[in-house]
Amino acid sequence: MKRILEVRGLSKIHGHGCPRCIDSTGPEVDSNICPHCGAVVAAHDISFDLHEGEILGIMGESGSGKSTLVKTLFFDETPTVGEVLFFDGERQWDLFALNAAEQRWLRNHRFGMVYQNPHLGLNFKVSAGGNIAERLLMSDLSHYGEIRERARQLLARTEVLPERMDESPKQFSGGMQQRVQIAKALATQPPLLFLDEVTTGLDLSVQARILDLILEIQQELGTAMIVVTHDLGVIRLLTGRTIVMKYGRVIESGLTDQILEDPQHAYTQRLVASAL
Amino acid sequence: MNPGYELPLDEAAYSFGFLDEYAKREVRRTILKAICIPGYQTPYASREMPMGRGFGTGGLQVTLSLVGPGDTVKVIDQGADDSVNAVNLRKFIELTCPKVDTTEHTRDASLIQSRHRVPEMPLTEAQVLVLQVPYPDPLVVVEPSEARRKVMHGEGDYSRLLTKLYEDIVQFDEITISHRYPTRINGHYVIDPSPIPRYDVPRLHHCPALILLGAGREKKIYAVPPYTRAEPLVFDDVPFRTEDFRDAQGQRRACARCGTRDSFLDELIDDDGNKLWQCSDSDYCNSQLASGQDSTREVAQ
Amino acid sequence: MGYVAIKGGGRAIAGTEAALESLRCAEGEAGTPLSLDAIEQQLRLLTSRVVSEGGLYHPRLAALAIKQMQGDTLEAAFALRAYRSTKPRLLDLPLQETGPMRLIRRISSAFKDIPGGQMLGPTTDYALRLMRLDLADESPEAFRAVSRRFLDGVDEATLPDSFPKVVDALRHEGLLLPLERNATTAFDITRDPLVFPVPRSAALATMARAETGSLLAIAYSNMRGYGDVHPTIAELRVGYLPVMLPHPVSGEPVEIGEVLITECEVVAMYEAQEDASVEGDGTENQTSPPTFTLGYGACFGHNETKAISMAILDRALQKGMRDGPSNPSEDPEFVLLHIDGVDSMGFASHYKMPHYVTFQSDMDRLRTTRDKATAAPKPQGDSA
After folding, report:
1. N or C: which end of chain B has fewer CB within 10 A?
2. By C-alpha distance, which of B69, B211, B43, B26 is closest to B127?
3. What is the pLDDT of residue C355?
4. What residues of chain C lie within 8 A of the CB of A40, using their CB?
């Protein structure tokens, strides 16, 4: 399988930091706050690969650094150190060596993001169709009829009724809003999608249908995904490989089946045991 | 404060073009930059003029910085030379720029300052058109922060503005922008072409004259250089439409005064409550009358 | 046809000038024209507003502008600004010290006792706002006697020359950060456009020229709860600032005159000097010891409301520039682009100008969309 993303030594420290930050934080000391300088080591020395069409899970509690990780990859945050290569067909992008305009271009054209909070991913002042149109218009599509047809198809694919495409997503249920977000993220047919706690807070039945939809899309389009969640059920259902994070460090990684069957780290063992 | 201090009465006389020379030079530098980057809103330190912000102080600073002895200036507002604001600005130019001629004839002018209209008479390479601008940035409807708008302009990212047009068509089956129609210059920057009607937008395209747009209150100058592309922002399959001057039978209305059928018309209501249409460009109307093109007058009456 | 276009503005404009002038002189035979001295002295606070909002310290011209504009401060400040546009900038003023100001008033609400003492001076703060009907028909003799009596028996030698500044004491104690001497010259808003983000000196200069009411309104929004500055006035001083210029030959600073200014320094609640915000984890950074923060306001003339409003907004804007604005008064663009009297008043006035062409264009759009709406009900979710 071809690699799509190569993450090497990615770290994010909030605050100035001091030479003792790294040794004084992490799962061993049960903290991500440096007792010497007060800096927060949100993520440290994260490395992994992602392959085309693969779904990778990142699991951890709040404060583990899992959200920091995807925010950094989606350019919502700047890393302190680290290198990320993105392989897109013939092209290869060194993400943090790009200028702001190139980063925005990648964000708008080659990446997709679905947030837990639909307000972050959708513009509630325009219709559901308009939200998708905005992303299509970024990629220089300028035929009204085509834009509308594409938006209708995308909404149909994510099971949003086409009759409702001219309504504001404000009037939609939480599950529907996530479907519109997914449609919007897919509008430019990105090879890479980030999903940040997308089902958190939804009813169980709604959750299940959205997870099904994500799986179907991955199978149809071969989109590679990074799924961030604290929910073992989501990990089990969606992902092939998983990274477990705690206090900014990777404490365990491998095939999801293996991690769930035979967790190595005490923390992962507790997580798996409590979910059973 | 300082009682007894006497006013320097000899200072009452103003220098040529009102502004001090440093200020004029700065405006000219800004204009050069604006011409070099067609459509880019070039910031400058707009000076206070002795008329209200919004009354054409931006255009006036451009005009006063460019004008010199030997120039002939025409000032119009709503297409007319004798509307109050045009008269006021012309009077001010006459007062502060001795040896500069003023005219009402588009053909004779080397510099035309205008509010809300592009003259009907085709402009020439020898002419400069200065448009007065209240709101320079077409993105302000989708993004209130100027800092963020600057980035969007720089990257040519007009997707949110186009989304607004999309939403318009969804809701009204028409683009509802009436004037100040967003116009892309030379394939990159989208400008607010000032509150000219849509009728005037295609007339900016490849215009032989230099077009300068001055926003005094918002402190920006931008340009459509001669023979430069100026294209209204539209979808490929939704045509750009100018104002419709057809009557119920689909006939193009004629000017009630000169009879022409090819000008932008003002809609008027006479004392008896009847509607009339008349050229908004008064010089054009007069010249049509003078050239005896009144064969259609009977129709108009 | 019989229709005559309602145009021909030249004569109409001449008419407005005459009508305006006739109202200025409407007292008729019994009237006395206002003297500039009377405006400058008796309406000193009005003159203060105009020199400050006009951005030109020329009280005499300000008095003339007030007379000419019939008391409209916006118009008078405007005339002063337009006059200023005709003058070249000859030099950059070096940094001026307000310590040596010749004060007529200084107070601190932070300390009961301050070095040099509180000096209430001329203020209406504690005056009862009762109508003084005796002023309605004041005799010139009584009027002239007032200033004679006030200065009677004052030994000028006993008056202090200057007072130490209250904030210097706080700095000495380390409760305020030491003053950073900024080597770069201050931003000149009359020569450079504001392109955001702007330095603090650009914000201060814009506020110093701002319209008093606009500045007050936005500062008030912060005081009421759309913000959290919670200021205490460390010092408010009103007085004459000696303006120092380097001598063209020797380079030594020489006093070239003095300007009346109002200066206000507010001390706001402390915060730790942290550099990064912490997200999600609910933890706080511990770094250098907390200090008070300072807001600075100063303007030409005697205008305490303006100086206080400016100091509060300076503090609010510093916060907004650092952390991002969480309300309008912390947003530099929002504040600085909406407080200029000349800009805002001019734009409000311009709506009175003809808008025939744009309105014609508006009507065309409305008619077209109405026609479409009545012609056929739009199919839901269909492509055009």
Report:
1. C
2. B211
3. 85
4. 278, 281, 283, 285
